């Protein structure tokens, strides 16, 4: 397959976005409620009469079936009172409402504007003719505001036109509500959705569109609902939220199917084809497009026929089938030229130019891209002019015409700044940075990329929902990698300019930002409106119930369709929960005074994080090379390591070999298992040494006998550094000479330390050995048929009892059996305890990390089912004052891996809730070994007085020395994250 240039931007490979408004350009007596159906010819104006008395209110609606028309209202004395041409869609009527200021014959003129298809017909109805009432003035005011907002939004050249339109539609809404015009109210929300989308206010766009959809659904305006659903799908598609886009598109598809509207049915089918391609199902996408193509051809809809050919070309390009891609795009180009669709013609030329560049034909690329630029310039389309200039910059680079390349990028940058397209501006700056670096001007490259990162940070903070911030930030990690690389190249030339320190600070900027900005913000929930708190509670309850259903589906081996259906509902409800959280934070009385913490610089790390016995190891993986920042109290050293792919390969094998004993392979014999484990052990030892040589050997002297604070991104998060070979002695494990602490980022620890923690009066709260199933021996005295897949963890009781014996009765709380339940945990004041210990099963949900959690008792003392799942979405809302949370369960350190955030799992949740540190596991641990490790850990911590990191080291070393427990599978799964003191 041809290697593609990631900096090259194409146009038009996008989902169909529906609009009600496409901006362009023998009188019959009307009777109340009579629907008049008419055909109108090009250049024709038809006139209709309304006999109205003074102070009578009348309202006329015209539904444009196949033609766009303009309305005029003429007074009895031939004066033009109003001229309306807001919509050119069959889904939105043109309307005129008026209170007669004199008795007489008013005229409605319907003027032909353009045809969509034959026959050129419309329908007209006199909706009202009656004495006016007070609310009629609201209706007229609403339409006045609405009409002006339309003009401001789509016809005004004023720089603040969009802002005026937003205000106009917003002001019209209460007037439409007062006159009980729900259709008008819905259209206001619809256009607010479109405008906020164009202003990059994506969350507001979704909110407004959802309100429009709700009203259209309630008043059974199905064609209008289908259009809004399609537009909502387009917003989600933009953010690569393909599942949400698919759900909305399917609902719109079903509406059009029931309306027998095959043309729009085909359009939405095309959307679903593009969504399928987004999922990587290119064959399915091609099939869908081939199925809808005959619909457009039979309708003689050449524009959409060209749209299909264009997208087929784009899909074949993604498949690496350049010849087919070019063929389909040239078919699209031919159609678009024939029907005079100049803008779309240029879009296809852009994509042809991009493909020609990819396949090594830069002259053809230049020809097509230049033609596209000429057309966009003629049309005054500055958005796509900017895209063309950006792409031409890349083509000039390939041609070796280096003076023209930066000139083209600069023109694109100028246009994008003028238009306020921040993300496109970001792409321009990155291209200029990369080009400047190629030309050897590293300071200039750094300047461009610094501005780029500022744009990225600014855009991220303007996204109101945290999940959108996280997704966006994850998509821009390579921009930070580029900046670090530029800084380190400059450091080699100017070692005294502190570029290495700035590179470290940049590494901190790209780490765990959502967690960093959340720690310490839990108090913002105080003073929040009770209705928001109740909505949050209801949503969490509903989500948890849905997850129970999903788990039962999985256990019962339900069909993919059944599973997908419940997952779609879960996803929608999680999105609503994110929205509630955003509103709660913003409505908190303390929110305005809350200052989000910023990533630390070198001096701050050295002053607030490190002591004389600690070394920070922060790894920044890159596609060309990896950097290891080694920070002590006195100095910074940066080591260049192999590229990401090389490290990933060894690390992944090491992790899989480490946890091989936890795998249960169906029908595997004991002999086969033994053979597999022996092979895994051999590979584990080999890779443990090799990974140590890569990651630690270059700094063996600096880390000797030191406490290691490790910031490990991506695959390295799965690696227990404790199980790596000591770089100075391959027969030793690293843990035998070094305390090891994992950090999401150095800045996170600094923020944890800044949060005021009260001195907890009690030592520990323990929840252990819950009852999961009705066949548990402890349930013999009652009858219960409840069953599930969770096995009793018998050693967790022994573990908990040993811990209990190390504490005084008045300073501990311990819940066992059915008492180790969720209700007890919710009612307990957890802020009273220094340590929270949960000895039970953990569940990892990579698909919905918010629904990872720990399992408490699922059955009460009478054998009845009870809610026992403590999910992450609830953990966020616990109120802790804990020095330490211990998750003596399986895979509790894991979660969904998101670049820039790390593994968003239970560890993040408990830190957000107020824990200073969390001890959690990286794989499915052995029950007995875990019990032994925990007993030794608490012995060192509670009886011998060691801090958590040192206590863990002592416990792990003691197990290394004990026969039967020395394999790192048994002791290295547990890692400490956060505060070690």
Q: Describe it for me?
A:
By secondary structure, this protein is of the alpha/beta class. It has 34 helices and 27 strands. The chain has a six-stranded mixed β-sheet, with helices on both faces. Strands 1-3-8-5-6 form a five-stranded mixed β-sheet, with no helix packed on it. A five-stranded mixed β-sheet has the order 12-11-10-13-16. Strand 11 and strand 12 form a beta hairpin. Helix 5 (222-238) runs antiparallel to helix 6 (242-258) and helix 28 (794-805) runs parallel beside helix 32. It is globular. The chain starts with 27 loop residues before the first strand and ends with a strand. The model is unreliable at 1-9, 17-25, 591-595 and 893-903 (pLDDT under 50).
Quick description:
The chain is an alpha/beta fold. It is 51% helix and 16% strand. The radius of gyration is 33 Å and the shape is globular.
Q: Radius of gyration over alpha carbons?
A: 33 Å
The largest sheet is:
6 strands, mixed
Choose one word for the global shape.
Answer: globular
Estimate the helix proportion, in percent: 40-55%
Give the tags.
disordered N terminus, 5-stranded mixed sheet, alpha/beta, 6-stranded mixed sheet, globular, 16% strand, 34 helices, 981 residues
List the helices and strands and how they pair.
Blueprint: E1 28-29, E2 35-39, E3 45-52, E4 56-64, E5 67-74, E6 80-84, E7 94-99, E8 104-115, E9 121-131, H1 134-154, H2 161-178, H3 182-198, H4 202-218, H5 222-238, H6 242-258, H7 262-278, H8 282-298, H9 302-318, H10 322-338, H11 342-358, H12 362-379, H13 382-399, H14 404-419, H15 422-438, H16 442-461, H17 466-475, H18 477-493, H19 499-509, H20 513-518, H21 530-555, H22 560-587, H23 602-608, E10 614-620, E11 626-631, E12 636-641, H24 644-658, H25 670-695, H26 700-703, E13 707-711, E14 725-726, E15 729-733, E16 740-742, H27 746-754, E17 762-770, H28 794-805, E18 812-817, H29 822-827, E19 833-839, E20 841-843, E21 853-855, E22 869-871, H30 872-875, E23 884-888, E24 895-898, E25 902-905, H31 906-913, E26 917-921, H32 927-943, H33 948-960, H34 968-971, E27 974-978
Parallel strand pairs: 1-3, 10-13, 13-16, 17-18, 17-19, 19-23, 23-26
Antiparallel strand pairs: 2-9, 3-8, 4-7, 4-9, 5-6, 5-8, 10-11, 11-12, 14-15, 20-21, 21-22, 24-25, 26-27
Helix pairs in contact: 1-2, 2-3, 3-4, 4-5, 5-6, 6-7, 7-8, 7-9, 8-9, 9-10, 9-11, 10-11, 11-12, 11-13, 12-13, 13-14, 13-15, 14-15, 15-16, 16-17, 16-18, 18-19, 21-22, 24-25, 28-32, 32-33
């Amino acid at each position: 397959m041809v290697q593609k240039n990631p900096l090259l931007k194409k146009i038009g490979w996008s989902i169909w976005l529906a609009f009600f408004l496409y901006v362009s350009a023998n009188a019959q007596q009307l009777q109340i409620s009579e629907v008049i159906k008419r055909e109108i010819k090009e250049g024709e104006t038809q006139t209709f009469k309304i006999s109205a008395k003074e102070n009578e209110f009348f309202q006329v609606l015209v539904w444009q079936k196949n033609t766009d028309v303009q309305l005029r209202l003429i007074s009895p004395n031939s004066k033009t009172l109003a001229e309306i041409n807001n919509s050119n869609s069959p889904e939105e009527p043109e309307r005129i409402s008026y209170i007669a200021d004199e008795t007489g014959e008013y005229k409605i003129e319907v003027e032909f504007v353009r045809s969509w298809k034959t026959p050129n017909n419309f329908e007209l109805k006199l909706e009202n003719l009656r004495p006016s009432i007070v609310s009629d003035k609201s209706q007229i005011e609403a339409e006045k505001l609405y009409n002006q907002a339309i003009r401001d939004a789509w016809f005004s050249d004023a720089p603040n036109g969009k802002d005026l339109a937003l205000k106009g539609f917003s002001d019209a809404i209460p007037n439409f509500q007062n006159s009980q015009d729900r259709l008008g109210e819905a259209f206001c929300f619809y256009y607010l959705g479109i405008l906020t989308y164009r202003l990059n206010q994506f969350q507001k766009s979704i909110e407004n569109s959802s309100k429009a959809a709700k009203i259209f659904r309630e008043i059974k305006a199905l064609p209008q609902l289908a259009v809004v659903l399609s537009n909502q799908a387009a917003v989600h598609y933009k953010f690569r939220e393909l599942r949400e886009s698919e759900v909305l598109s399917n609902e719109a598809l079903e509406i059009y199917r029931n309306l027998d509207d095959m043309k729009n049915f085909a359009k939405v089918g095309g959307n679903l084809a593009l969504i399928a391609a987004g999922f990587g199902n290119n064959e399915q996408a091609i099939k869908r497009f081939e199925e809808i193509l005959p619909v457009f051809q039979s309708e003689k809809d050449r524009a959409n026929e060209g749209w299909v050919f264009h997208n087929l070309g784009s899909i074949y390009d993604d498949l690496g089938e350049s010849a087919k891609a070019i063929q389909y795009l040239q078919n699209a180009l031919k159609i678009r030229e024939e029907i005079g669709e100049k803008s779309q013609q240029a879009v296809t030329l852009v994509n042809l130019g991009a493909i020609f560049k990819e396949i090594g034909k830069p002259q053809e690329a230049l020809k097509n891209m230049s033609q596209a630029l000429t057309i966009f310039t003629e049309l005054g389309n500055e958005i796509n002019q900017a895209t063309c200039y950006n792409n031409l910059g890349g083509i000039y680079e390939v041609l070796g015409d280096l003076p023209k390349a930066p000139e083209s990028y600069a023109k694109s940058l100028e246009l994008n700044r003028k238009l306020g397209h921040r993300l496109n501006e970001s792409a321009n700056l990155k291209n200029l940075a990369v080009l400047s670096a190629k030309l050897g001007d590293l300071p200039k490259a750094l300047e461009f990329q610094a501005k780029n990162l500022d744009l990225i940070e600014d855009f991220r903070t303007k996204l109101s929902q945290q999940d959108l911030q996280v997704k966006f930030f994850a998509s821009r990690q390579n921009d930070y990698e580029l900046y670090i690389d530029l800084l380190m190249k400059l450091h080699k030339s100017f070692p005294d300019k502190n570029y290495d320190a700035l590179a470290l600070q940049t590494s901190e900027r790209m780490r765990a930002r959502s967690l960093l900005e959340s720690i310490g913000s839990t108090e913002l929930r105080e003073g929040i409106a009770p209705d928001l708190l109740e909505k949050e509670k209801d949503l969490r309850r509903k989500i948890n119930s849905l997850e129970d259903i999903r788990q039962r589906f999985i256990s019962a081996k339900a069909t993919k369709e059944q599973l997908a259906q419940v997952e779609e509902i879960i996803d929608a409800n999680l999105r609503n929960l994110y929205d509630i959280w955003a509103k709660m934070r913003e409505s908190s009385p303390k929110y305005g005074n809350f200052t989000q913490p910023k990533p630390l610089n070198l001096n701050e790390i050295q002053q607030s994080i490190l002591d004389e016995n600690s070394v920070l190891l922060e790894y920044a993986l890159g596609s060309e090379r990896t950097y290891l920042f080694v920070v002590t109290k006195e100095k910074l050293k940066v080591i260049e390591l192999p590229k990401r792919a090389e490290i990933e390969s060894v690390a992944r094998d090491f992790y899989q070999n480490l946890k091989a004993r936890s795998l249960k392979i169906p029908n595997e014999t004991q002999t086969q298992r033994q053979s597999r484990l022996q092979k895994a052990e051999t590979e584990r030892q080999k890779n443990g040494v090799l990974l140590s040589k890569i990651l630690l050997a270059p700094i063996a002297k600096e880390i000797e006998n030191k406490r290691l604070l490790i910031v490990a991104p991506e695959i390295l998060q799965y690696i227990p550094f404790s199980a790596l070979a000591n770089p100075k002695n391959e027969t030793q494990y690293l843990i035998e000479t070094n305390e090891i602490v994992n950090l999401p980022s150095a800045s996170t620890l600094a923020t944890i330390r800044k949060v005021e923690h009260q001195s907890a009066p009690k030592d520990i709260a323990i929840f252990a050995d819950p009852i999961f199933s009705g066949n548990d021996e402890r349930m013999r005295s009652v009858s219960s048929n409840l069953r599930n897949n969770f096995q009793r963890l018998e050693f967790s009781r022994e573990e908990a009892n040993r811990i209990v014996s190390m504490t005084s009765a008045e300073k501990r709380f311990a819940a066992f059996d059915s008492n180790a339940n969720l209700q007890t945990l919710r009612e307990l004041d957890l802020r009273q305890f220094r340590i929270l210990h949960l000895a039970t099963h953990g569940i990892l949900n990579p698909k919905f990390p918010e629904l990872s959690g720990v399992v408490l008792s699922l059955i009460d003392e009478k054998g009845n089912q009870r809610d026992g799942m403590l999910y992450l979405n609830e953990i966020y809302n616990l109120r802790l004052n804990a020095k330490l949370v211990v998750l003596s369960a399986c895979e509790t350190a894991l979660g969904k891996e998101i670049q820039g955030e790390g593994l968003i799992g239970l560890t993040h949740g408990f830190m957000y809730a107020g824990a200073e540190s969390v001890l959690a596991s990286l794989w499915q641990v052995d029950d007995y070994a875990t019990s032994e490790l925990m007993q030794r850990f608490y012995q060192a911590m509670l009886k011998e007085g060691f801090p958590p990191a040192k206590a863990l080291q002592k416990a792990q070393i003691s197990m290394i020395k004990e026969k039967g427990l020395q394999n790192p599978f048994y002791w290295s799964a547990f890692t400490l994250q956060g505060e070690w003191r």
